[in-house]
User: Fold these one by one.
Assistant:
Number 1:
Amino acid sequence: MPLINFTNPFAILVAVILFGLVLYLGRETKKSYVVGIMLFVFIAILLGHTIEFMTIGQSNEEIYKEVTRSATIDLIFIFLSFISYLWVDDIEVKAGKKKSIDNSLEWFWSKV
């Protein structure tokens, strides 16, 4: 059984709700470290799934598939958290009237 089973729809729903709440909190407070903490939590969950993946091997096919799917969903959450971090960081720079080294999201929006 995975550390946090993201193959369960209820767990994904809870994770999406928490993701949205943390993103809202980061946007309203204009503090990028709030979203950065969320990013590191998802990286820690991925690390836990990776360790679990390495320890179980292919002895139990069902658990192997669950851990693989959970790690895939972890990667999706990490990508979304990273994009969210860049967005909130841009908001923080504009609100604090700080000098930005570069436009962090420019590489993303130019590809979309």
Number 2:
Amino acid sequence: MTKSRLFSIITIACFVSILCIPLGIVLMIYYTSWKKKTKIILTLSLTAFYAALIAFVLFVRPSINSGGISLPFGSNSGYTAFDSGSGGSGSSKGGKSSGGKSKEPRLQDTERLPKNVKKSQGSGASKAIYPILFFLFMLFLIIWLNLRSKGKSNYENPYVDTNKYKLPLADNAKMPMVHFLRLELNENEKLNFATETNQKGNEGNFVVTNQRAVIFSVQENVEIPLEAITGISSATSTVMVIATTEKKYYVFMPENQMKYALAVLKWTAKK
């Protein structure tokens, strides 16, 4: 497992824990290879979510009816909910109020509390569902973006640290150390760039020196002198086209290596 993928897993775990979202944002910005646009969107969204969650926990309280609950019984009738409704005379009639059916309609359980009190019940839970749904949506977005870019930008060059190429390359730029032993160098020849090629069934390597561009593959090995190159371009995000007066050569490589291969080969060809 590569270091970038390991930090990606830790970052997603921090987001899932909710409490560690700030730590996850830091790891995402400095230690993952996610796209810059993705990092910006997730940083802004998760920061807003975390702030809203803290505000909800600290400042939102259940509504309290400080004025009391008004009962649905008349205040001037002279009796309470425990009286029969006819004062003292009701109690002297042979227990009709106790043994027989009460003349007063019995209050239903749903009428014991005012409507405004009933509506306030569960309001806290309904408010809490919105940040939870938002968080689940952001988690789905993170997973979807990483699955979409899987296998495209997580390639690590085994021959050179591409972070040492400062693009765009200046005229007096210095090339970093390239560790590629498959090519036998000529006198005063120096390696400027190397990467693996990934054409299915024809994998190999692509190398740029200060004298030539070399394509190693299963089918054949090609050496192209720099002075023979008439054009350098990219057909797609993973296919480079090197044109000469006689032929065009197509080099398949990982997407995140394309910008370095193009920049170094164009820079070297001008020398």
Number 3:
Amino acid sequence: MNRVRKLILNTLVIICSLFLIYYFGGFYISKETCDLHTMRSFYVNETTYIMEFSNNNYTKTIYANPEEKTMSIVGSKRMGFWHQTASSSTGHKIDMNNKLDTFGSYSRDFGGMITVVYRNDSAIDKVEVCYDDGFCVVLDDWKQDFAGVFIKDKMWQNGIYKAYDNQGNLIAEISY
């Protein structure tokens, strides 16, 4: 009987400890809950999931608010079965004056840079990005007018963004 009592007591202590770590420590069981609490703490309204990129134990998720034309890159870090908030870039206001807008982030912990492009003109079929070091990438996988790419082991750089229609005609060109 004494062993059963110790087992129950130790189990309750472990459960209470895990609950306190979860509640006060910023650790979450699900990535979605971690992202939601991160966005709440930054007072952002982006709730529409767009896409996500993963590298090692880090995940960067793109969220947008189509009504307010804003977007955020929310980071989370997986530690065992726990998720914790990582570096994030929130509240980017999409520029509606140009045919496309770009937003990105770099994190040393994440191990690379993310470039996200929003198209204001649905005639845009692909965007070619040429960074200052000569590295070029084509974005053509659109999700709700967003396209993005993760480039591993690359620091953030400026570049020239050229938007083309489905016939290959240049529609817009911006430098960022």
Number 4:
Amino acid sequence: MKFPNAAKGVKKIFTAEILSLIAALLSIVGIAMMIITRAAEESHAENATVVAGLGTIALLAAAAIIILIAGIMSLVGIINASKDDGAFKAALIAILIGVCASIVSGIFSQNSTVQSICQIVQNLMNIFSTVFVIQGISNLAVKVGNTQVASQAKTILAIIVVIYVLSLIASILVVVFGGQFASVTAGIIAVVALVLDVIAYIVYLSLLSKAKKILA
């Protein structure tokens, strides 16, 4: 095994992305139930409101826990892989900036403007970290002589950037509408953003799977 650290790291990143995909799917269902809750409130259907509301809380709470686990696993994977390629170090820096934004968001939890800015920064850092990981995979593929995977990495990178930018725009629109729970419109936009994220996860996972094989 030529790059043992990267091989170990990519495996962890792959597992983390599967968990993130599961969390995104749970979030889609949870927000869809939130929309149902809003509709039920307008129609004064109390039973439906209670059921949908509890379902939303449970699903989003589960998604949050899974995302936390996935985030830790992905961080460990990137730290491992960074020992074999510099692009993963850039991804690590992007993640740390995102963590700082999250901390600032927690400190200024009562300031909606700071919250919105921090959320946008976190989304951007998520995009950057993914871009750098893909670049790292491309670099390693070239080093092991697999030009096919290196070429595919560049194509997938372009696709993911487009998807993430669209998802980021949708997330910004959610902020403009006042947050995911402020209105049905915001909820629908949030679902659109999550659907785009799911597509990105699937495309990204296909590349990580190939990377695992060439590094094994």
